[in-house]
Amino acid sequence: MSGWLRVVDIGAKRTLFETLVPESVWRRHDPNPRGGTRGTRGVSVHGNRLVIAGAERLYVFDESWQLVGEHTHRLMADIHDVLADERGIWVASTGIDALLLYGWDGELLQSRPLREDERLMEELGHPGRWLPPLDPGLDYRDPRHRTGVFDALHVNGLGRAGNGSLLVSFGRVVTREEDEGRLGFSALAQLDGNGFSILHRQPGVSVPNHNVAEAGDLLLFDDSNRHCLVALDRGSGAERTVSIPGDPPFLRGLAQIEPDVWLVGCQAPLALYAVDVRRGKRIATFPLGGVEHEAVYGICPLPESFADPGQLSGSDPYAFWKRASLPAGVTPIPITSRGGPQARGRA
Questions:
Q1: Which of these, 17, 48, 80, 342, has the minimum number of CB atoms within 10 Å of its CB?
Q2: 171: domain range?
Q3: Distance between CA atoms of 333 and 68, rounded to whole angstroms?
C-alpha cells in the first residue's frame, strides 16, 4: 500500500471518494522505511486540469476525472510538491534538490539544480557542498542512485506570490555533513527573474517544515516542528501561530478556502483542520478515518466545474488510475475560466 487520494465535502464533513494510489515502480529498491517512494506527493489545479503527483510520476485529470495525461522523467526524484499554471507543472524534485518545469505535454521546459545556484548556495551557507553534482546520464527516479542522504535543501513546497513569482519551501537545509537527516534550518524563498531571495529562516529544525503560501501581507507555512500553522507579516515580521493537536500532528498540506481560513493536514488523528488566521484559532475539524501511519500530504480545493468522481466498483483497487481517455477535442492544455477556479466547499 502506498497512499490514498480522497475527495472531501467540507461542508457536509464527509468523504465523497477515496482510492488507493499506485505504488512507485521503484518501491522494491527503496531502503527508506518512511516516506521514500511511498504515497501521494502533491496536488494542484489549474483551469480544468487537476495534477496529482506520485514519487516519480504526474497524473493529469480532466473535470470528469478522466486521466488525460501521465508523465514521468528521469529527474522526477522523490517529488514532494507540484504547482500547475498556464505554462505547465512545476515540480519539487526533492531527491536531487531541483526545481523542474514540465509542459502540459510532459516535455521538460526548465531544470534548476539548486546546488548549482551559486548565489543561493552562498546565502544559505553552502548546503550539500559534500554531495556529488548531478550526473546527466543517471535516472534519479531509481533510489539506488541516491544512496544515503542525497538532498541538502529538502525542497518540499511550492506556491504563487501575489506578484506572480514562485514561492519555495526548503523544509530542512543542512550545511554540515554530520547533521544530514537530523538537524538544520528551514527557509522560505521567492524566485523571480532576478533569482532567489530568502524571505524567512527558522533555526533548530529536526524534521522538515512544510508548504508555503501567501495571502496579502502574510506568508504562511506549516511548522512541523512546533506543530502549528505560522502566518508571518512580511512588513512587520510579526508572527501569528495556531497550534494543531495530534500524536503526532506532523503538519502537512495547506490550502486557503476563505479569505482568512486555511485548511491544514494532520497525521494522527488523520484529519483536516480549518484555521482562521485573523482570529488565531481552529474553527472546524474534518476527520478522515484512514489507516495506521497514514498522513495528510497535500490539499487542493476543487473548482465547481469538477464532477463528483463516483466510487468505482470491482476488484481492481487501481481502476481509477486506468480511466485513461483522449477523445477528439481533449487536450492536456488547461482551459481557464475568467477569474480562475473558485473553491466552493470541496477539497
A1: 342
A2: 3-208+299-322
A3: 10
Q: Which residues of 271-309 are buried (b: 16+ CB within 10 A; e: fewer)?
A: bbbbbbbeeeebeeebebebeeebbbbbbbbbbeebeeb
Residue pair 260/277 in contact (Cβ under 8 Å)? The answer is yes
Burial class (CB in 10 A: 0-12, 13-18, 19+), 62: buried
Q: Is residue 226 part of a domain?
A: no
- C-alpha 38/C-alpha 17 separation (Å) is 20
Rounded to the nearest angstrom, the gap between the alpha carbon of residue 243 and the centroid of all alpha carbons in its chain is 21
Q: Whole-model pTM? A: 0.91
Helix then strand then coil, in percent of the chain rounded to 5, is 10, 40, 50
Looking at every residue in the chain, the average pLDDT score rounds to 89
Residue for grid cell 516542528: 225
Name the one residue in this structure whose C-alpha cell is 529536526: 206
Q: How many CA atoms are closer than 13 Å to the CA of 238, on its beta-carbon side?
A: 6
- Smallest CA-to-CA distance from 241 within 197, 271, 275, 267 is with 275
Q: Mean per-residue pLDDT for 168-187?
A: 93
State the DSSP string of 180-200.
TTT-EEEEEEEEETTEEEEEE
With respect to residue 134, please indicate whether it lies within any of the assigned structural domains. yes
* Cα gap 138→309, rounded to integer Å: 38
How does pLDDT run across 5-20, given as a tens digit for each residue? 999 999 999 999 999 9
Contact (CB, 8 A) for 282 and 275: yes
Whole-number Å distance between alpha carbons of 146 and 78:
10
- CATH code, domain with 49: 2.130.10
Set of cell numbers at residue 339: 477569474
Q: For the chain, what is the domain count?
A: 1
Contact 98, 113 (CB under 8 A): yes
User: Which helix (H) or strand (E) is 119 found in, with range?
Assistant: helix 118-124
Q: Are 6 and 17 in contact (CB under 8 A)?
A: yes
Contacts of 193 (CB under 8 A, 6+ apart): none
